[in-house]
Amino acid sequence: MDWGEMREAAEQSGRALLPQLDPPLALPAALALASSAERILFCRPEPSGRIDDAVGHPKQRVALFIGPEGGWTAEELALAAAADVHFLSLGKRILRAETAAIAACAAVYCLSGAWNGSC
User: Fold this and answer.
1) How far is it, in rounded angstroms, from Cα 61 to Cα 46?
2) Cβ–Cβ < 8 Å for 80, 42
3) Contact between residue 76 and residue 116 where contact means Cβ atoms under 8 Å apart
4) Which backbone phi and psi does 12 adopt, to 5 degrees?
5) 55-104 pLDDT, tens per residue?
6) Domain that includes residue 55, residue range
7) How many structural domains are present in the chain?
8) Is the Cβ–Cβ distance between 64 and 27 less than 8 Å?
């Protein structure tokens, strides 16, 4: 997605600010960048914490990690655990990476109370 598409999407959804979009990074660099967030949420399909237990208040800065097709490696999971992430699952179904990202973002948005309706 380029900046023009981001701007158009933000305007369409009524956002006042553009979201931050970082370039792809290796996992260690991404975890280091995310360390300033109040919560780091790391999605994996194995039974783990529930997303509604991991999401905080609407103003909380959240870093959300969605696994690659095929899942996280043992080394990547160990790196995440060392970074004090909140492991969570999006449910029993294994979602494609692009679908999981959309579902996880929507869940965080809704569960944090950022949306003024009910989920």
Assistant:
1) 25
2) yes
3) no
4) -60, -35
5) 766 666 778 888 888 888 999 999 999 998 888 888 788 888 888 888 88
6) 21-111
7) 1
8) no
